[in-house]
Q: What sequence folds into this?
């Protein structure tokens, strides 16, 4: 059942004038409403004529008992003969006429209701607090007595524990500072005697323990206890003697066992430390005696340790904290560096094989460290490159010769039959155009086969001849056409006023041009690592003056990196090839992000 709340409620006749109280949203009730509903009413205005019946008076009385009504205002009592019994049941707080009930009077009555409710709340709260206070007081007194007794007992225990802790601390200190058995026996005898734990302590090797027991124990006639200790596979016994012949307490026996274990651990650690120091000295000797540079670095390339070979390298310096700074004076990690894997590093004209080994310390599982061994293999690489180049050229000559001869004979027959077909058919025949196209295609194939035969000729057949630099360039571009298209490298040849002629070996010079374009293709691949859709451009110019012929390659594959270019094997091979022919190459940066290769060919009498 829901509760109906109202500040102002009337139980009056239907014709009662309540218009003056409409602003307070009054609630009008009937006798049936009192029976059926539950209420929370601050001011209950009751017409005396409606409570003449005993039943209605009882309903109001019950609601007051249940605190559903705070104040009862009885109106119209002078005109009604209200039974005393009903009046006593209602027990009105205020008796007045309905006309005397004004707004100001309502405000005063509401304030009284509020004050009465607050007073009742305060009284209830005070009673609850007093009750709780008494309960808490009794509980605190009981706990105080218990705490006092506990504190007294705890003080006794703390005193005993402090004495025991101090004794154990001194025991740990003594066992941690001793380095050998003789020193341990001396220090422990002084400590245990000062605390009246034992009269005498003796450490005996296992081989001598039986003889010691047979000789010493009958003469001393005292209580003793024996524990075992193991050092470097040797077993020792600790004998604890008590002169007063009293039996050792259980706590003392446990202490003796712990003492022998602690002494065993500390002496073993001391022996291991001495062995480790000896091993460290041997390791340092081997580490610094190596002729190769050895570095210990972390994952951020910081040098943690370097041997003498690395510190005394021409580029080495104490203020350089990273491996690539210390050994190669680089500003960034070496190209191709792979921590934890073997790799090679190119620095200027030298090549280093790097053996990288990963390790981590037991107490730093998240940290990663690497040992790098740098071995100079420049001479080995140079010999390998020479052997590989010789093998490639020999194999290329053999393969090209075989291919050219295998294709040349059938191609000659095809061209001959095409010429016969062309002569047999009238000039107006529709097949003439197709035959001519096949003939031109066959001639181009024959030209390519002739180019292949160049690689099968002997070295002494390559004598310098007057060659067109433009035609040599175009022949190379024809052979590289598919590769240039695949890699999206565009080549633009500037207008040439005159066909520049120069005395060169066609094969050697074309090989140099081929190396130049391989260098550009390699640069383009590196550029695509950061710009996937980058388009390469090479502008070629051929010109002459009175002294030299020039072949200029300008490309947008910059910028010019002197360190990287000086280590580029293709560029090194190109420079060597041109020097062998009496030419030279100069690389520069004509504008930002561009590279220029200028081939200078001194003129000679033709």
A:
């Amino acid at each position: 059942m829901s509760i109906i709340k109202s500040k102002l409620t009337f139980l009056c006749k239907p014709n009662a004038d309540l218009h003056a109280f409409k602003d307070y949203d009054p609630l009008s009730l009937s006798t049936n409403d009192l029976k059926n509903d539950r209420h929370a009413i601050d001011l209950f205005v009751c017409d005396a004529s409606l409570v003449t019946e005993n039943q209605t008076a009882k309903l109001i009385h019950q609601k007051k008992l249940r605190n559903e009504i705070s104040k009862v205002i009885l109106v119209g009592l002078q005109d009604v003969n209200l039974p005393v019994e009903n009046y006593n049941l209602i027990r009105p707080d205020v008796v007045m006429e309905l006309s005397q009930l004004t707004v100001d009077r309502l405000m005063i009555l509401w304030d009284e209701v509020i004050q009465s409710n607050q007073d009742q709340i305060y009284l209830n709260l005070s009673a609850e607090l007093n009750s709780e206070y008494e309960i808490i007081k009794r509980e605190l007194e009981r706990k105080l007595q218990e705490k006092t007794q506990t504190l007294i007992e705890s003080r006794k225990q703390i005193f005993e524990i402090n004495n025991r802790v101090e004794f154990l601390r001194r025991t740990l200190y003594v066992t941690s500072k001793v380095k050998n058995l003789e020193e341990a026996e001396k220090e422990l005898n002084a400590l245990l005697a000062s605390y009246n734990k034992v009269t005498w302590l003796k450490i005996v090797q296992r081989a001598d323990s039986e003889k010691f027991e047979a000789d010493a124990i009958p003469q001393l006639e005292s209580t003793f206890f024996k524990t075992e200790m193991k050092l470097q596979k040797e077993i020792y016994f600790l004998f604890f003697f008590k002169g007063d012949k009293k039996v050792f307490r259980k706590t003392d026996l446990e202490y003796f066992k712990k003492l022998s274990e602690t002494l065993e651990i500390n002496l073993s650690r001391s022996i291991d430390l001495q062995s480790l120091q000896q091993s460290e000295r041997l390791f340092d000797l081997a580490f610094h005696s190596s002729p190769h540079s050895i570095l210990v670095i972390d994952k951020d390339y910081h040098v943690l340790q370097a041997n003498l070979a690395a510190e005394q390298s021409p580029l080495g310096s104490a203020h350089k904290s990273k491996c690539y700074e210390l050994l190669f004076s680089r500003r960034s990690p070496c190209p191709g560096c792979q921590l934890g894997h073997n790799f090679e590093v190119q620095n200027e004209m030298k090549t280093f094989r790097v053996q990288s080994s990963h390790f981590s310390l037991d107490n730093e599982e998240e940290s990663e460290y690497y040992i790098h061994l740098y071995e100079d293999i420049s001479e080995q690489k140079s010999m390998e490159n020479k052997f590989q180049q010789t093998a490639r050229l020999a194999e290329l000559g053999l393969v090209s010769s075989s291919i050219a001869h295998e294709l040349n004979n059938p191609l000659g027959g095809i061209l001959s039959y095409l010429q016969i077909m062309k002569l047999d058919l009238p000039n107006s025949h529709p097949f003439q155009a197709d035959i001519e196209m096949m003939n031109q295609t066959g001639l181009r194939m024959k030209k390519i086969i002739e180019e292949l035969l160049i690689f099968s000729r002997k070295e002494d057949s390559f004598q310098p001849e007057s060659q067109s630099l433009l035609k040599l360039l175009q022949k190379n571009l024809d052979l590289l056409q598919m590769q240039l298209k695949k890699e999206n490298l565009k080549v633009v040849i500037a207008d040439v006023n005159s066909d520049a002629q120069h005395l060169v070996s066609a094969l050697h010079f074309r090989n140099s041009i081929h190396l130049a374009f391989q260098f550009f293709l390699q640069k383009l691949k590196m550029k695509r690592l950061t710009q996937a859709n980058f388009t390469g451009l090479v502008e070629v110019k051929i010109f002459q003056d009175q002294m030299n012929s020039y072949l200029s390659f300008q490309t947008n594959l910059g910028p010019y990196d002197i360190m990287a270019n000086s280590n580029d094997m293709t560029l090194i091979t190109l420079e060597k090839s041109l020097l062998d022919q009496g030419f030279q190459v100069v690389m520069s940066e004509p504008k930002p992000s561009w590279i220029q290769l200028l081939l200078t060919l001194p003129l000679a009498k033709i």
About this structure: DSSP finds 16 helices and 20 strands in the chain. The domain at 290-376 is CATH 3.30.450 (Beta-Lactamase). The first strand starts at residue 3 and ends at 11.
